[in-house]
Amino acid sequence: MIDRAGLAEFLRSRRAALQPEDVGLPRGPRRRTDGLRREEVASLCHMSTDYYSRLERERGPQPSSQMLSSIAQGLHLSLDERDHLFRLAGHNPPARGGVSEHISPGLLRIFDRLNDTPAEIVTELGETLRQTPMGVALTGDTTRYTGPERSSGYRWFTLPAARERHAPEEHAFLTRMYASGLRQLVTLRGPDSRAAHLADLLLASSEEFRRAWDQHEIGIRPHEVKRFVHPEVGPLELTCQRLVDPGQAHSLMVYTAIPGTESHEKLQMLAVIGSQALR
Fold first, then answer.
1. In what residue span(s) does the HTH cro/C1-type domain sit (predicted)?
2. Into how many domains does the chain fold?
3. How confident is the model at residue 98 (pLDDT cuts 50, 70, 90)?
């Protein structure tokens, strides 16, 4: 059963505890609100201000699990706070660990400060949870996929377009890397896991995956320098730094270029192209 008063009080307290800079928003010279405004939280949670405001005023329908997940992420809640939110709203909390898509507040705080840099947060299956605008400019919007196609490894073997932004000489290595990584996850998560389900789908649909899978390779790590082929700026060599949240099995991937190189100049050009595309 929903605890409307408890839910409203909890939401108000979490909103008051957040400052604009905590979530990547400008403070502005005329701010008087203690914490975030309701409309700012509603935008972060991808819902209408009216809907969110009614929850804080102990009104409106019981929020769905999907809505609660959006609120928990928008308010940068910890896992314990997320679980508390779900229980106040009359729901069982989602699972934790490898299957969870709740991004930790610490990882989000870093991500929110990377708007001018290509970056993304991905799950252990390569499902993109967040992208910076520059990340979208570099690789396209990879949050738009649904079902198995959310996984970059699954797309690699089933969607030819997934290879277009990677240098052709890297394709053979990436095939081995994706098969190796998925095999390792299946062993780690077990035969009833989402990783095992993806492997079964690929074994049934991709001859290339079957050949790579049959090699039983383990431990093939991504190259630190990734070679992209962008449709507008051409070849790019970018260093990828990876920050791992072991509790949630999420990775923050940040792509940079060495100053003074051609790739650095192209990345600056891409920033201009990306900002124009968003206008």
1. 35-82
2. 2
3. low
